[in-house]
Amino acid sequence: MTVLNRTSLTTVDALASSLADRIVDTPTGYGGVEPDQQWAQEIRRLAKARNATILAHNYQVPAIQDIADHVGDSLALARAAAAAPEDTIVFCGVHFMAETAKILSPDKTVLIPDERAGCSLADSITAADLAEWKAEHPGAAVVSYVNTTAAVKALTDYCCTSSNAVEIVESIAPDREVLFCPDQFLGAHVRRITNRTNMHIWAGECHVHAGINGDELTAQTRDNPEAELFVHPECGCATSALYLAGEGTVPEEQVKILSTGGMLAEAKSTGAKKVLVATEVGMLYQLRNAAPDVDFQAVNEKASCKFMKMITPAALLRCLVDGADEVDVDPTTREAALASVQRMIAVGQPGSGE
Ligand code: SF4
């Protein structure tokens, strides 16, 4: 555990802050600060001083969601970043999300409260892996889920979200091979719907979503036969959910395969009293706020993303005090990545990313 030495860093009007002096660095992230009223006031004061807007992903801890100017999925937040009048974006999410914001808003300063907040799914394919895969399939179209690094996006023809992946794959000429990466569960979902036989799927996965398995889902649905199921297509249980519907264990109309934004929209209109939710548990906070009368329960309570949870109250305070960590994308990579991201935005709806 390291107590940060503030005087060695560039600061904004905060050296006197007793709060900032309490920040400690640990292997699992920055700690030492509680999200109380003093913290909230300091965050607002510093954000104003930096002319910064704070964006928070749906999987962030409640205190971060509550202090943010915008809460949403990665695509909606990238759009909010581009539209924001402020010249600094504080992106409370994981690194690839902040990179996507930088690709769309190169003239803005993009900060992430802890640059160690990575993503196991984005890490499951590197640019070198993709270049090698492309060489084995010359002429194939590359479709990458938004959870990829800027370097992978730069080698991609079409970025996609979970809600437009099917549409994008269907728009590619039927005789052209498709390389789909990095998520194998989303890829399987798209292949099942499109019946495409010349689609190759990278065997990547998110450790959190893959951990929500079919056995848990089966047990929960048998215990709660009336409940609806909201399932993110990246989940290891997406196939199980469709199987359960197919065999009649859960009526088909009770199973909804939805992006995080889709879940929020559905929460507001569902007639169900209880909903089982198969995605990262941070989503429950948003769903319960959106529809307080519905009983939302996690399929797996332990499905928590340690990277998302690295954006702690202390990390956000440090970010605004020090102007760190800054996220940059080199101009060549950015230019190459921009076209694939713009294609995704042209087809995707806000609320349809992870
Ligand atoms: S929940 Fe999974 S896909 Fe999402 S940021 Fe965490 S590791 Fe990545």
Structural description of this entry:
With 354 residues, this protein is α/β, with parallel strands linked by helices. 39% of the residues lie in helices and 16% in strands. The chain is built from 15 helices and 15 strands. The chain has helices at 37-49, 62-67, 74-83, 95-104, 127-136, 150-153, 165-170, 184-194, 207-210, 214-223, 238-246, 260-269, 283-290, 313-322, 331-347; strands at 2-3, 24-26, 29-31, 52-57, 70-72, 88-92, 109-111, 141-145, 158-160, 178-181, 199-201, 228-231, 255-257, 274-278, 295-298. Strands 5-4-6-7 form a four-stranded parallel sheet, with helices on both faces. Strands 9-8-10-11 form a four-stranded parallel sheet. Helix 4 (95-104) crosses helix 15, helix 10 (214-223) packs across helix 11 (238-246) and helix 12 (260-269) packs parallel to helix 13. The longest helix is centred in the last third of the chain and has 17 residues, at 331-347. The protein starts with a strand and ends in a 7-residue tail after the last helix. Bound molecules: iron/sulfur cluster (SF4). The site of iron/sulfur cluster has 13 residues, from helix 9. Pathway: Cofactor biosynthesis; NAD(+) biosynthesis; quinolinate from iminoaspartate: step 1/1.
